[in-house]
Design a protein that fits this description.
- It is a single chain.
- By secondary structure, the protein is α/β, with parallel strands linked by helices.
- The protein has a single domain, classed as Carbamate kinase, CATH 3.40.1160.
- It has 9 helices and 11 strands.
- The strands form 2 sheets. A 9-stranded mixed β-sheet has the order 4-3-5-2-1-6-10-11-9, sandwiched between helices.
- The longest helix has 25 residues.
- The protein is globular and about 50 Å long.
């Protein structure tokens, strides 16, 4: 995939970031090609890693929280009779698989990467230690947080909000396959309108599908802005870091 060459040079952009440290939430669905069903599509993962590596090389500090819905959906499976807590723990294990796939793809791009898991599995990932994560970021390593919060009944959206606050991120960036937050499903409704800015309360009151209510409330209580954008348009992440208006911004004020 050719690299996007529009916009400022890397040296020009380095001092112009409006965002210096971000946490990106990647859903499990981001790891698969929708036409191929469930699982991990390595080509898709490498395309994501290419964009992440490009921005990280420009001086951005990157952390990620990954979901596991491409492998296992705890909430859905619990409705079929499996114990909810057990189903959620299985989902946490699925996030570790995605984290390892992304780590491998990033390191093939020459990016030093660390996986931290909320569920201890020391042979393949570090335990989640906040101060160690901060040190990795300061050393220009990408940190991938897996295992959710380590607790059942909490989504990876909530894990993303929690980890973003822990590392003092400038923003929580939610990567999607659409351009932002719409008033209805843009896939089903071609006339759907995209919001440029929303308040946290608007998202909650209108029940917009940004993140779950717990994650939104956590961001609102701590004034952590959320940016929802299309990661799968090559170059979008870089333009976002340059300060361009990409996607939808959720904050205290519209």
């Amino acid at each position: 995939m050719p690299r996007d060459t529009t916009g400022p040079t890397e040296s020009e952009a380095r001092g112009r970031f409006e965002l210096n440290r971000v946490l990106i939430k990647l859903s499990g669905e981001a790891f698969m090609d929708g036409s191929k069903g469930f699982g991990i599509d390595i080509d898709v993962v490498h395309a994501i890693a290419e964009d992440l590596a490009e921005v990280q090389a420009m001086g951005m500090q990157l952390a990620l929280v990954v979901g596991g819905g491409n492998i296992w959906r705890g909430g859905q499976e619990s409705m079929k009779g499996i114990d909810r807590a057990t189903a959620d723990y299985m989902g946490m294990l699925a996030t570790v698989m995605n984290a390892l796939a992304l780590q491998d793809a990033l390191e093939k791009q020459g990016v030093f990467t660390r996986v931290q898991s909320a569920i201890t599995m020391q042979e393949i990932a570090e335990p989640h230690i906040r101060r160690r994560a901060l040190r990795h970021l300061e050393k220009d390593r990408v940190v991938i947080f897996a295992g959710g919060t380590g607790n059942p009944y909490f989504s990876t959206d909530t894990a993303a909000a929690l980890r973003a606050l822990e590392i003092r991120a400038d923003a929580l960036v939610k990567a999607t396959k659409v351009d932002g937050v719409y008033d209805s499903d843009p896939v089903k409704n071609p006339d759907a309108s995209m919001f440029k800015r929303l308040s946290y309360l608007e998202v909650l009151n209108r029940e917009l599908e940004v993140m779950d209510a717990t994650a939104i409330s956590l961001c609102m209580d701590n004034s952590l802005p959320i940016i929802v954008f299309n990661l799968f348009k090559h170059g979008n992440l870089k333009r976002l870091c340059w300060g361009e208006e990409i996607g939808t911004v959720v904050s205290s004020e519209k």
